[in-house]
Write a structure and sequence with these properties.
By secondary structure, the protein is an alpha/beta fold. The protein contains 8 helices and 8 strands. It has one domain: Rossmann fold (3-Layer(aba) Sandwich), CATH 3.40.50. Helix 1 runs parallel beside helix 3.
């Protein structure tokens, strides 16, 4: 396989806004949609109501898949997340009888947690409609924030992270599993409570000018 040309992110966007805009009115599969497993039940319900999955469910025909059976059942008992199946994103074929074909699959900050990301990518291709797309985000190993934290000695990898990607390695993994990169971007999440709003706005301005240094990669890949 010939090497990919250099993949350079071309824009810096708000992650949630991008997902919602692309998914609006479509049939969407949301992978790893429960991300607050260590919280109390009360906090899980509160966080779920504010989550990306709740926002997606309000604008599109959304189905979720998550491995955390305890949390999914707790949320169902609270009357929410009824559209979430309990399942392993690396074994989507196990859910095949319960899943239709989808226009889009959203994998937000989950691929870095997996032992075998290729299994997820292969499973996603089998549940996408012809011409469908995978939207995938993951921390950018070559981001400026990560570099500065390394310099200061304050860098901390997520304790559940098993993998790390830059734009080129993520593109090569996607291509290896039958995808074509349609968009390469970086993105930011909502303003963290601990971050000064002025610092946040300054960072957004900088990364819009130099998107390849953004903290999170965001790719659209067509199957």
């Amino acid at each position: 396989m010939p090497p990919l040309k250099n993949i350079v992110p071309t824009a810096y966007v708000n992650r949630a806004e991008f997902f919602l805009e692309r998914c609006r009115g479509r049939r969407v599969l949301h992978l790893g949609c429960v991300g607050f497993t260590d919280a109390s039940v009360e906090d899980k319900v509160r966080l779920a109501r504010e989550s990306l999955h709740a926002k997606l469910s309000a604008v599109c025909d959304c189905t979720g898949v998550d491995l955390d059976a305890v949390t999914v059942e707790q949320l169902r008992a609270a009357g929410i997340f009824q559209n979430v199946l309990i399942g392993d994103v690396e074994r989507l074929d196990d859910c095949a009888g319960k899943l239709p074909l989808f226009d889009l699959v959203v994998a937000g900050d989950i691929i870095e947690h997996l032992s075998n990301p290729g299994l997820m990518l292969d499973g996603v291709r089998r549940v996408l409609k012809p011409g469908g797309s995978l939207l995938v985000s993951t921390p950018n190993a070559l981001s400026l924030p990560s570099f500065l934290r390394h310099v200061r000695g304050t860098f901390r990898e997520g304790n559940q992270h098993a993998l790390s990607f830059n734009a080129i390695t993520l593109a090569q993994l996607l291509e290896r599993h039958g995808y074509t990169v349609a968009q390469a971007l970086t993105c930011h999440h909502a303003l963290a409570p601990r971050l000064n709003p002025l610092t946040f706005r300054t960072g957004v301005t900088f990364f819009r000018a130099f998107p390849k240094f953004g903290g999170t990669l965001l790719f659209e890949a067509r199957a």
